[in-house]
Amino acid sequence: MFESGSILSLAVGLVVSGDPELWSIIALSLRVSLTAVALACLIGLPLGAFLAVVKFPGRGGLVALLNAFMGLPPVVVGLFVYLALSRSGPLGVLGLLYTPTAMIIAQTILVTPLIAALARQSMADLHGEYDEFFRSLGLSTRQTIGALIWDGRYSLSTAALAGFGRAIAEVGAVIIVGGNIEHVTRVMTTAIALETSKGDLALAMALGLILIAIALLVNVAVLSLNRTAKRLAYA
Amino acid sequence: MLKPPELTGNGASLATSLFPLVISDLTFGSRERTLIDNLTMTLDGRGITAVMGANGAGKSLLLRLLHGLLTPTSGTINWNGQQLDDDIRARQAMVFQRPTMLRRSAADNLAFALQGLPRSKRKHRVEELITEAKLEHAALTPARLLSGGEQQRLAIARARASEPELLFLDEPAASLDPIATHAVEDFVRDIHHDGIKVILVTHDVGQAKRLADDVLFLHRGRVIEQAPAEEFFKRPTSAAARAYLDGQLAI
Lengths: 235, 251
Known about the structure:
Mean pLDDT of chain B: 89
Number of strands of chain B: 10
Radius of gyration of chain A: 21 Å
Oligomer: heterodimer
Order of helices and strands of chain A: HHHHHHHHHH
Low-confidence stretches of chain A: none
Strand order of the largest sheet of chain B: 6-7-8-3-9-10
Distance between the termini of chain B: 45 Å
CATH superfamily of chain B: P-loop containing nucleotide triphosphate hydrolases
Largest sheet of chain B: 6 strands, mixed
Number of domains of chain A: 1
Number of helices of chain A: 10
Helix content of chain B: 25-40%
Distance between the termini of chain A: 53 Å
Helix content of chain A: over 70%
Shape of chain B: globular
Low-confidence stretches of chain B: 3-13
Strand content of chain B: 15-25%
Number of domains of chain B: 1
Largest sheet of chain A: none
Strand content of chain A: under 5%
Structural class of chain A: mainly alpha
Shape of chain A: globular
């Protein structure tokens, strides 16, 4: 049996020593998840605002679908992206399977519904407040959406951070489309899964600690953002 | 799209006026409740018109119908022979009872209403409007941190930004203290002197006496009295208006 205390000290030692392998894994994790969240915001924020502003038949169904997709199982998303990108799949010619790009695609699909659904909710609240004023000014739908996103930026940043939390922590999608290839597609969560099954608990633990630290940082960021917003009374 | 404001001035410079405003058989409501009931009236483009009446008489609804924020159930609203469209609405502006303050600075709230103006001219116009609203000290303050009176003046200045010919004000001084009310009233008077027609909903008899040239008195979704202000306050002809002015409940 391992002794948990010694694993912990090994893990801390690994973090402190700046082990290059460890840090390259962390860097890739951040690159993949941050890119995915940025793309998901580009799609999800206008989509959420659009659904909050424009009335059309079937909107209710679309919103319900979006809300349901907030809980998309990462493994299932990974499977679909895998099928699309595999050699015989529709996008097979691109040769993207087992690359960081494939992981970014999978996480973008995973996180976009979450960000869009959260954005729709806060945009709908804000739109209720602004609607008559905007109609009085005769704003176009495009101008309305732009103004709502800008004025709702604090609550939308919370949506983006929630998306980041989901992306950085998921393992199912990235392991299927990335393949957990050393120095190429290995990220924190896939490395933890692998090292645990290999028995290298110190590395797994070190990665786990850093993952938790990142989660904490994200939460601190949310809190201080909201506090700043309140201080400025914009929110 | 925002219409670019008329840079040459307001009302007078345009080929056709918005007035006379002719409303006939205007009705608005649901199946259960009629809120505006066969309202018929004519209004000319001069002066400040006060719309008065008890709560639920349909004052705010009337403003929203005139501004096109609500669609009538039946009846017509004619602006000098024309139905309301985007062009006509662009020549009107409205300040709501609880003015919408964008989550931006006071100056940016004004700039927002000037999107039709080229960027180079926008800054100058914002400064003009800030001065008119007497908000020089608060131009960069987040609008939502301004006091009630300052917010109301900002909202009026913002409504002015598009150089409307007609300004709707929905209880512009509700819940303001006397000094802030006074400042808002001065501002409204200035606007009127610049040739802008003002239609103002108010519950404040004193305010109506101070500002209004004529009064529309609404009761249960109808105009039951339309008279010059002086006449209305001296000799209201309807029982409901008399009761309202005496501070009684109209039954």
